[in-house]
Task: inverse folding
């Protein structure tokens, strides 16, 4: 097989190209974000059947590392990394759940939830972090002086970074906004030996600090401003099509905060189209919490301008971001995909999460934002009854049990708790138990 190649390229000037082995986050000429660009001519020497057969032959097999949902597509992701430097925990390959019962309630039968939280650290962040930490290991083996890898996080990124760094034997440092992450999210980097700095700020403040720290020290930056992360996350699009026997859905809906995820989705679908594996593109929807909705406000003005906002507290804390670094990438993708941006209030996202949980899932509040967007678009008749729809569930609900418990106990202010379900206290008596059951059967 050919030696495939990729490089960094400015998103604002395609003539500005840089070696993939360099440590770069922004274009030195324009200060714009970079993206990893692949040599499509080399990849196109092999037809679509070849790639489909190759990817299918590897999928969830025990031929390490190619059984991973990410590394099974290595030629399309980061071909420069040697197999011995890959740090993988068998990420990807997550359940594409047919939400039959919930879909019937809403009136869309062909509804699917991609359960990306069913991963090693419980979120889709694993897909990008396996690539980034593997790249760091490769760079170190090439002689680069990297003392640690750092990120700002609202929880999930720090969990993924610390786990993969621990597996690789690389030091990790995470910057968390103080008292703004769940206990389950906080304990993950602590358990994996990361240096955890609790900053009296929000995510945007932590993001500013970590960038300055990485500039001053020989520390590698792991946030989605780093385009290597996107290469792993784009495999969601490829895997979706693979699970649908190489067909595409009509709609894909994903929650958005720092906006690397919507960018990654689009990039994956574009690569599939450009190499002939699919013939058309789905429509994409980026869902934001109303309390952190700068992209939604820009969408209302047809993206003519964008202004950051001061993010307010939201149950969907992983997307509580008012100044997203990947906004230009996101807007570019949404325009190309005839995309939509929708928002969800706190009551809407909490109710949507609880409602879909009652049909067999156990979703994070960020998924509730995406579910709210889905329901709104169905009510507006934008999404049709016969459309095939995929909602991306970005993290496992077990990371957010505190907010879920508070919902069912009615402890959340301004939240209706319409779908609350509480345990019933019953005396130690078979007659009392039977009497209660008679009322609930």
Result:
């Amino acid at each position: 097989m050919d030696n495939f190649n990729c490089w960094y390229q400015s998103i604002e000037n395609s003539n500005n190209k840089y070696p993939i082995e360099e440590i770069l986050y922004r274009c030195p000429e324009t200060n714009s974000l970079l993206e990893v660009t692949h040599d499509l001519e080399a990849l196109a020497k092999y037809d679509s059947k070849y790639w489909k057969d190759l990817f299918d032959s590897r999928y969830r097999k025990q031929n390490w590392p190619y059984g991973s949902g990410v590394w099974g597509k290595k030629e399309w992701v980061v071909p420069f990394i040697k197999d011995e430097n890959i740090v993988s925990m068998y990420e990807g390959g997550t359940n594409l759940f047919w939400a039959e019962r919930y879909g019937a309630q809403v009136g869309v039968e062909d509804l699917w939830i991609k359960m990306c939280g069913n991963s090693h650290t419980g979120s889709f962040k694993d897909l990008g972090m396996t690539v980034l930490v593997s790249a760091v290991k490769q760079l170190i083996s090439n002689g680069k002086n990297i003392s640690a890898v750092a990120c700002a996080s609202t929880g999930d990124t720090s969990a993924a970074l610390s786990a993969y760094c621990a597996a690789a034997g690389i030091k990790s440092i995470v910057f968390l906004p103080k008292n703004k992450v769940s206990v389950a999210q906080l304990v993950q980097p602590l358990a994996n030996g990361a240096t955890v700095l609790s900053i009296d700020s929000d995510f945007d403040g932590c993001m500013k600090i970590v960038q300055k720290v990485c500039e001053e020290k020989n520390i590698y930056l792991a946030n989605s401003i780093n385009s290597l992360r996107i290469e792993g996350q784009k495999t969601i699009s490829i895997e979706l099509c693979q699970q649908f026997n190489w067909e595409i859905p009509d709609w894909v809906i994903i929650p958005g905060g720092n906006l690397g995820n919507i960018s990654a989705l689009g990039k994956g679908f574009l690569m599939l189209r450009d190499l002939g594996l699919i013939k058309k593109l789905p429509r994409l929807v980026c869902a934001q919490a109303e309390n952190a909705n700068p992209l939604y406000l820009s969408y209302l003005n047809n993206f003519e301008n964008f202004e950051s906002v001061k993010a307010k507290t939201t149950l969907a804390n992983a997307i509580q971001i008012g100044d997203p670094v990947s906004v230009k990438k996101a807007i570019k993708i949404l325009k190309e995909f005839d995309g939509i941006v929708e928002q969800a209030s706190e009551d809407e996202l909490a109710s949507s999460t609880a409602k879909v949980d009652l049909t067999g899932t156990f979703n994070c509040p960020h998924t509730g934002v995406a579910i709210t967007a889905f329901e709104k678009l169905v009510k507006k008749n934008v999404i049709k009854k016969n459309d095939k729809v995929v909602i991306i569930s970005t993290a496992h609900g077990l990371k957010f049990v505190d907010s879920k418990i508070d919902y069912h106990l009615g402890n959340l202010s301004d939240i209706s708790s319409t779908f609350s379900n509480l345990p019933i206290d019953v005396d130690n008596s078979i007659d009392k138990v039977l009497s209660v059951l008679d009322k609930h059967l």
User: Anything to note?
Assistant: The first strand starts at residue 6 and ends at 10. The first helix runs from residue 40 to 43.
